[in-house]
Amino acid sequence: MEVQGKILEISDTQQISDNFKKREFVIEYAENPQYPEFLKFECIQDKCNLLDNLSVGQEVTVSLNLKGRKWTDPQGQVKYFNSLQAWRIDPVNGSQAPEAKKTETPAANNQIFSAEDESDDDLPF
């Protein structure tokens, strides 16, 4: 699942316990610009560092998992909690990761091979 929007807030990483940490951020999601939505996401464990190179005001695409939990309080009432867990955050600026740029070459994509080229190829396929 993906959502695109503008980063409004980025919080510091919170160390919840010895084994668990999380970091929250908010984006403005404007599918309908007249009524924007403000969505709070969380990054957990090793995903907390996804926000290190991002800043408030930046347009991003967030890949997320929708999580839900059930909890019974001490009085016996059942409560439900939802969270939006981000696992990938990509800036929306038209650029690709450096690794992807290295592997793409326009000349290679438009190259035409002839039967003569194939005869020099020692691969069986």
Describe, in plain words, how this protein is organized in 3D.
With 125 residues, the protein is mainly beta. The protein contains 3 helices and 6 strands; from the N terminus they run ββββββααα. It has helices spanning 98-103, 106-109, 115-119, and strands spanning 2-10, 14-17, 20-29, 37-44, 59-72, 78-91. Strands 1, 2, 3, 4, 5 and 6 form a 6-stranded antiparallel β-sheet that branches.
Overall mean pLDDT: 83
DSSP summary, beta strand count: 6
User: Ranges with pLDDT <50 over ≥5 residues?
Assistant: 95-115
Gross geometry: globular
The DSSP helix count reads 3
Which structural class should the secondary elements be placed in? mainly beta
End-to-end separation: 37 Å
Order of helices and strands: EEEEEEHHH
Question: What portion of residues is helical?
Answer: 10-25%
- Beta percentage is over 45%
Largest sheet, in brief, is: 6 strands, antiparallel
How much is the radius of gyration in Å?
22 Å
